[in-house]
Amino acid sequence: MTDPLRQLLPLLEIRWGRVARAVTLGTLTLVCAIGLAAAAAWLVARASQMPPVLVLSVAAVGVRAFGTGRAFFRYLERLASHDVALRGMAALRANLYDRIARGGADVVALRRGDLLARVGNDVDDVGDVVVRALIPGAVAVVTGIGSVVLVGVFLPPAGLVLLAGLLLTGVVSPWLASRASASVEVRGAAARGEVSARTLELLEDGQQLRVAGRLADRRAGLAAAEDRLAAATDDGARVAGVSAGLEAGAQTLAVLGCLLLGVPAALAGDLAATELAVVVLTPLAVFEVTAALPAAAVQLRRSRAAARRLLELLSSSDAPARPGPDGPQTRAGASGRLVLDGVAAGWGGPAGTSVVEGVDLAVGPGSVVALAGASGVGKTTLLVTAAGLLAPAEGEVHGPGLFVAEDGHVFGTTVLENLRVARADVDEREAREALAAVGLADWLDGLPDGLGTLLGTGGSDVSGGERRRLLIARALLAPHSVLLVDEPAEHLDARTADALVETLAKIARTSGRAVVVASHRLAPLGAADEVLLLGHDDADPAGVPARVVARGTHAELLRDVPAYRWAATQELTSGGAGPGSA
Amino acid sequence: MRPLDPRLLRQARAARSYVLLTTALGAASAALVVVQAFAIAHALAPVVVATSPGLDGPVDRAELVRWSAVLAGAAVGRALVAWAQERFGRGAATRVVADLRRQVVAHAVALGPRPPAGARPADVATLATRGLGDLEPYLVRFLPQLLLTALVTPATVLVVLGLDWISALVAAVTLPLVPFFMWLIGTMTAGTSERRLATVERLGSQVLDLVAGLPTLRAFGREVGPAARVRALGESSRRATMKTLRVAFLSGAVLELLTTLCVAVIAVGVGLRLVHGGVELVPALAVLVLAPEIFLPLRRVGAEFHASSDGLAATARAFGVLDSPVAPAGDRQPPRPVGGELVLDDVTVRAPGRHVDAPAHLSARITLGTGEPGGGRVVALRGLSGAGKSTLVLLLLGLLRPDSGRVLLAPGPAQDAAQDLADVDATAWWEQVAWVPQRPAIGPGTVHDVVTDGRDVPPATLDAVARTTGLDAVLADLPDGWHTRVGLGGVGLSVGQRQRIALARTLVGATDRPVVVLDEPTAHLDARGEQVVLDTVRTWREAGRTVVVVAHRASLLALADQVVDVEAREVVGS
Fold first, then answer.
1. Considering only residues 5 to 64 of chain B, which have any Cβ-Cβ distance to chain A shorter than 8 Å?
2. pLDDT tens per residue across span B501-543
3. Quick check: A577 pLDDT over 80?
4. Chain-chain contact of B552 with A108 (C-beta, under 8 angstroms)
5. Does B121 lie at the interface with A, CB-CB under 8 angstroms?
6. How far apart, in whole angstroms, are the C-alpha atoms of residue A60 and residue A555?
7. Is residue A368 helix, strand or coil?
8. CATH among 1.20.1560.10, 3.40.50.720, 1.20.1440.60, 2.60.40.1930 for A8-187+238-318
9. CATH for A329-401+481-575?
10. Closest CA to A473 of A537, A418, A526
11. pLDDT tens for residues A482-503?
């Protein structure tokens, strides 16, 4: 398998010129650090020979210049490398969005907050690889070789000792650190997950656990999970400890090695006194070269895992979601008319199991059809299929409509921009009319900046009822002539919910649109021309797809179907306890 | 903000040993730094002198070997210290976090169902899972460097003072400049960088917002257009971030400039004084080696500074929870709630965040079941949404105290034996009460374990219970029937399924709990589900238990022996 990071790298659109600039600046930073040490060592050794002060002036200026230059170059290097990383992240984000948007992905899964946040973190992690791994790595190689050459010119064996030390801290130690962090992350993942789950359980259910006398038991469970987490950390710490020990010891050992090689050479006259000082004291500064590498190795591994997850996301989104020409079909139909012909629907696609089957349905302009049935019977799946967003498992869909999700997204932008999601050229007058049609005129008047008010993330909060109405207003502005509205009444109190369904039916009739509405509340369905009751026979074993068990007008179903009548009566009695009683 | 919260040391035992360990290792590392400098200087100086043209000094080979051995010892010592810090420090830090998390969670639960702001389950959950995670980098990376700064820096300055007082003076003058300049830049830029950071976050969240809205965009067929917008947002986010960084890196640059320049100044100074014989070569070399070590911990503290602010913020929030007072516990033994009354005496609770009392001045006498077969009672709590029915349940359970009025347990007709629930030992009271909340907690374990609660229950009884509570239908849908694992890491259950398991558990187990409290048991149920609840409630009544039930539907109200009407009242003039 090829490296996922390398596969993802083109999406970062990295310009190597910028990387080279950052590496050069990073190298200059370390050249200053090492130069400072070497020049200072030479200066002190030479000074001890009590020469004329003028001899020392170049070295003195050099030491001061290196001392100043280091901070200067470091500042520029950090800016340059972060600029590369940020450009990479921005490009990656844009390319990811583009690929996901164009692909037929199961973007519904992206909805989940944690997954979304993970994609955000993964992008950051992949971008971080530039700042934390690639550039420090390149800088370390260049300056490492440079300092080995510097010492080696004076005394070749000392250069080799330094090289050995650098390999220890630059290769072995990072490798161990990366292994340690991998083992903590992999082995600790289960324990960490359990700690979170048990923490959440205690917090959510704590009061009932107290009453049930099970609190001590669950707290012990949390403690045990914490212990497992600590054990995993301990395991990793054993390896990480060796890595840290190597790193700390290698520097002193390299100095010792250079000393042991340099002293005989100096006494034999092969090495001048000043050169000996440089050979022995330079290694003290050189190891800064590899200091960032253990963290770089850890970052590289994290970034690689993040890249792998992003690639999986991309490959799943590149898979065609729609069937080929031989499979069951979604066809454009006569405008304003939706026809389902023997449709079976399920999330598994054509090959998967259906949750609903055998649905025939025709809706024309100005008419309203309702899908009723218990929660989870497959109303939403059927609507998504009728919208052409999901291929039917069997049968054909003609003239797919616009799916208006129960939890449609309200974007963190203005009211007007949210409505323009339906159509780019919605003007203010149309926006006001649509909001008024769903009964949001007063709400709009109450907003601080009218249509320009920011909503959602970081903006004004929208209540459940307002949100549902806003989503329907948006759907009304879309050019689609068939609207498929999922649970318009969810999370609303009974009175508001019923009013909303009735408004929807009225708009359908006046504007000549066809509307299919799924609802588990039956009370407002009198407004529909036909009601399809989805469900199972009592004799059906579990796992059998739901079917249309009854169809007719609301009044007919109330008269003929006992289960429908019972459910409707329950709504009335519970409605008696007041609005929003559920 | 203090760099180390003293409450952390008081509260978390693990933190004390961690700080102790890190301090000891810090002291050892300071000593080793000094030893290393002396060893290098003593080994190198005689050779430099001996090999310099025009100078001639004796080279004592034994001395050379001795100092080399010391240097080797220092290498081993430094390796050991670094190893120990990583090997034991990280584990200790994990334990500190675990310790604090356990305390925070336990305290949050003990605060009851209406904790103060900042200690609500959602807040504490964020704090306990993610927030306290920030404490680990603080403990592992920042704190050791802070302690090293406190130990190594003054120790090396003192040693340098003994070697060459001018160099020590240069270092001593530079050291206070570092925090001063960092503070200066910090105050000058604090406002701007925070504002820019907010911009960056907003731009970042807009991209995520677009991705989150993809299903909606796709439904409208408008998913391709925003790609250009994502790119533009990314570009402006980068520009805003770079502006922040230009400022943020400035303090790091100043820190680095001051420290390296100081090292350079010391080196040049020592060199020039060597020429005039103002200083010997051995101390000069030692000073040269020691000078960077004075500033090393300080530079690392600067690099880990953000870890400190995140960790300290998490600590402060944790202690915010731990410092919220818990209502004092009662210690009286409650009477057995059989054959007496539960008396609500003018009970009022202020609804959190609203000017409403719910319930408001509620007085009622709830007659308890006799505990004998046929002597049970069903008591329905009725009222509009928000009237305080669930609050009343919490009062009866003793999880919440009324703001005014009393809840009394009157075991018999004799009124004087009545006990205020507030004075009663809550644990003893809970042993007498079974509670089925709207979303019952289930597991971890198999369905069988959960329902029997470790009791030995004959299979025939279990089957009968499963039929009564509708658990049989749930079991038919579960992969392994009674032996399906539920709860943590097990099969996910719907609210309805949870409720049936909880009903069965309360029916089988908890037979020694005379009072059963059900909160809205029929919400969202179909005909069969409702029948199940009615049957179960009847069975409990047959067994002589008292069933207190929050009821909306007519069928449940019809079953009740007693109906308590709960009303809320707006508070005027506040």
1. 36, 40, 43-45, 47-55, 59, 64
2. 888 888 787 667 889 998 876 655 666 677 778 888 898 898 8
3. no
4. no
5. yes
6. 100
7. strand
8. 1.20.1560.10
9. 3.40.50.300
10. A418
11. 888 887 766 566 677 777 788 8
